[in-house]
Amino acid sequence: MSMFSESDLPVLDLGCGSGNNTKYLDERGVKVISSDYSEAALGKVSKDVPTARIVLHDMRNPLPFSDGCTKCVIADLSLHYFPMELTRKILNEIDRILIPGGLFIFRVNSIHDKNYGAGVGKELEKNYFLHQGARKRFFDEETLDSIIDGRWETVNRLETEVNRYGKPKIAWEVALRKKC
User: Fold this and answer.
1) Which CATH superfamily is domain 8-109+141-165+173-178 in?
2) 139, exposed or middle or buried, with CB in 10 Å at 0-12, 13-18, 19+?
3) How many C-alpha atoms does 122 have within 13 Å on its Cβ side?
4) How many C-alpha atoms does 50 have within 13 Å on its Cβ side?
5) pLDDT, tens only, 25-68
6) Are residues 11 and 32 in contact, defined by beta-carbon separation less than 8 angstroms?
């Protein structure tokens, strides 16, 4: 457990990309740690949100944070690039750094996301494809259920259409609470 009060704890924007979520949270006075594997993306975040703590990190490696150091982890379209075994390891790391009762909010590709490659390419695992050198997973309800195990309480789960890069994208938006 962290030595700080919950209100002092930051939100981790995991795989933050260009920092849209970081900027949104910062504008509302939330302390944010922005983490991504791309130095270029983090450079943009650093410029746009100078108050954010920037951490260069590849999610294939254990998270460089202490146990119970955050009240919320956001992973917005950053968890669908990995084989299932690695995805589970990433989720274990998220569980480790979240305080009891902490939130894990994520968005992942749906199997219905035809505009962004669902079902296209060489299938490496169920709904996990290699296409033009990129690997991408598309989630169905069964796969979501398999990664939301007994340590999480589902707060919200919705398959929805969002606008991404100028086209409709079908994604799962999920909010989980770590059980106490």
Assistant:
1) Vaccinia Virus protein VP39 (3.40.50.150)
2) buried
3) 6
4) 1
5) 999 999 999 999 999 999 999 999 999 999 999 999 999 999 99
6) yes
